[in-house]
Amino acid sequence: GAVVSQHPSWVICKSGTSVKIECRSLDFQATTMFWYRQFPKQSLMLMATSNEGSKATYEQGVEKDKFLINHASLTLSTLTVTSAHPEDSSFYICSASQVLSNSPLHFGNGTRLTVT
Amino acid sequence: AQSVTQLDSHVSVSEGTPVLLRCNYSSSYSPSLFWYVQHPNKGLQLLLKYTSAATLVKGINGFEAEFKKSETSFHLTKPSAHMSDAAEYFCAFTSGTYKYIFGTGTRLKVLA
User: Fold this and answer.
1) Cα of A102 to nearest chain B Cα, Å
2) Ranges of chain A whose pLDDT falls below 50
3) Which B residues, 1 through 60, put their C-beta within 8 Å of a C-beta on chain A?
4) Staple B29 to which of A69, B77, B88, B95, CB 3.0 to 4.6 Å?
5) What pLDDT, on the 0 to 100 scale, is given for residue A74?
6) What is the secondary structure of chain B as a DSSP string?
């Protein structure tokens, strides 16, 4: 149980275009989803916390207009990288938590974004 | 301030020998602690969790971890390493909020 599906697993796009990444909780309801960015050989950097039906909470230094997050339902959150640039190339991972606090995070398999 | 420290960035063991990956935390509150494993270009998979029940926690793939409050530690162990255990391991912590704090990771190498 507790499967999180992230799509696409990899994407290559040109500078200036936008890319949407989807994160779905398949067998549980996730009131909260998290978006992380991971640089090579580094830990996860929390970008934003996505709450169903409300605006996402962004971490300091993360541009909310650049990284648009929508959490329209209890099973789906999307991250859109707008006007992508090569420096946005990274590994993006979503995770979801069930309703109870202290529940473990369940992670998607990540999306490798390459901007050319 | 709350934090998680993974003391070793790299650990190498021979196949069949014990594994010890160290994690220390700092928190004023009762923590929940987790160990995750990440294989290349994959998300994180939960190995085990501690949430104020038994201090010795058994996880998947033969891993276990012991919560020691006096030492503020939550070290991950496995009696006998397997080649498939080679991966990146992350210790994570939360204190009752939805915000998780991750350690910097330990890369485990298993030598044949």
Assistant:
1) 6
2) none
3) 32, 34, 36, 41-46, 49, 51
4) B95
5) 87
6) --EEEES-SEEEEETTS-EEE-EEEE-SS--EEEEEEE-TT--EEEEEEESSS-SEEE-GGG-EEEEETTTTEEEEEESS--GGG-EEEEEEEESSSS--EE---EEEEEE-
